[in-house]
Amino acid sequence: MDDPRLTMTPFLGGRRILVIDDDRLNLRILSGILKGAGYALAEGDSGERALEQYETFRPNLVLLDVMMPGIDGFETCRRLKKTYGADCAPVIFITAKNESDDVVEGLDAGGVDYLPKPFKPKEVLARIRSHLANQALVEQQKHLVAQLSAANSSKNKFLGMAAHDLRNPLASIRGLAEFLRDGAVGPLSADQLDLIQTIHGASQSMLELVNELLDVATIESGELKIHLEGHNLADLIAKSVALTNMEASKKQTRVDFIPTAPVPTFALDGAKMRQVVDNLLSNAVKYSPPGSTITVTLGADLVARTCSFAVQDQGPGIPEGERDKLFKDFSRLSVRPTGGEKSTGLGLAICRKIVEAHGGTVVANNLPTRGCEFRVTLSLPA
Amino acid sequence: MNFNGTVLLTDDEPHIRKFVGLILKQLGDVRVLEASNGQEALEVYKRENPDLVLLDVNMPVMEGLEALRLLKELDPNCVVIMLTSIMTRASIETALELGAANYIRKDTPKEEIAKALTETIDACFDLGPDTAPPAAP
Q: Cα angle at A148 between A143 and A161, to 5 degrees?
C-alpha cells in the first residue's frame, strides 16, 4: 500500500450537496447546518427542481424530502438513479415519519439512508460525512481502475510495437545465418559453422519469444480473432506430431498419436488450434526425459457432443502447489526442461486463451504413475 | 525453377533487401535492383522496366500501397508482390484489389518466402521448359 491514494482519508470540505425540501423552514435549518460545516450547497423545493438542479450542480450527495407536491422524493430518486446509473450521487431521504415501510421504500428506490425530522445537527453531519466518505472512496476506486486499465492497454500497445519492430530484423538475422550455414557464400570451417549455428539458434529462440509476446499483446488487447473453418482435428494433430517427432528424435523421445474415435470435421481456427497442439507437444518434449514416449490421444463423446485430445508425457509432472501458476502469463514452474531448452512462460497462457476463445477448456493433471496430461476439450456442433 | 528476370526489390530496411535478395538469387540468374521507398521504386521501374516488383508496405517518402497504385497506372501489366509484416495484414486486401499478384510475409523462414515467390512467378510468367527468360516487354 505505497500509493498514498489508497490510504489517504478523502478530503471532504467543499463537497457539493443538493438539498431538496418543499418546507422553507426545514431548508433553512439544513442549509445552516451544512454551510457551517463547509459544504457547497444548492437548494430546491420540488422533485422537478431536484432533477434540473442535479444536472447543472452535479452534487456529491443529495438530501431529498419524501413528501412533496408534484413528483415525490422516492420517484425523484428513481428518476435520478435511472438517468445517472452507477455514477449517481448517493441520495439521503428526509422524512418526518420514520416508519419502517417508508424507510424500506426509500432504500428500494435507491436511497442510501434517511434523516428523521426534527434534525439533530450532530447526527445530520455525522451521517452526511460517512456517506460522502464512502462516495469519495468509490470515486477513487473508479479512478484507479480507469488508470490501471489505461496503463495496461498502453503496456499492450508498447509490447505489440516493440515485438513488431524486433521481429523483422530478427527474421533477417535468422535467415542470413541460414544462408551462411548452408554454404550460400562458400564453404565454412567447423568453427565458423559452430558460430553461425549459435547465431541461428539464438535468433530463432528470440524470434519465438517475440512472437509469443506479440500473441499476448494481441490477446490481451482483445484483438484475438478466431476465424472458424471446417477442420479435421485428427489431420491437424497428425501434422503437428510429425513435425514434433523430428525435434523429439534429437532427445531420443518419441511421440505416438492414437486417435481412439473418429472426430467429425467441425469449425475451428486451424492455425490457432495448431498453435495449441504444437505448444503442448513442444512442452511435453521439453520436460520429457530422454528415451521416453509422449502419447497423444483424440476421442469424441458423441452423446455429450464434445471431443477432446490429450498430451501425456513421462516427465516430472506438475509440482505440488504449482498448478495454479500453470496457465498464467510469464509463469515458469520449478521444473526445468530436460535438454536445457528455453521457456518464456507464455505458451500455456496463450494456449488457454485460444482454447477459451473456441469455447473450450484446457486442464492439466498429474498421471497416477509418472508424468502429466494436458487435456483440451472442445464442443462439437449439435 | 529457373527464373532469369530482373526484380526490383523495394524495402526501407537494408537487412530485408539483403535477405530477400539472397532468396531471389537462388531462383535462377536473377538481376536484383533495389529501392528503399515507393518514390525510388517508381523511378527505377521507369528506367529499368523490371519483370517483377517486390514492394514493402510501410516505407517513408512513399508507402507501398501508393506506389502500387501508381505502378499499376503506369503499367497495368506489371507484376507486383507485396512484402508484408504482421502489422500490415490489413493492407493485404487493399493490395490485392489494387492488382498485386501476391503477398509475402517477410518474417517467415526463407523456404516459405522462396515457395511463395516461385508460385507467383510460375503463375505470372511462361518460363517454358527451363530455358527462355520471361517475355521481354
A: 140
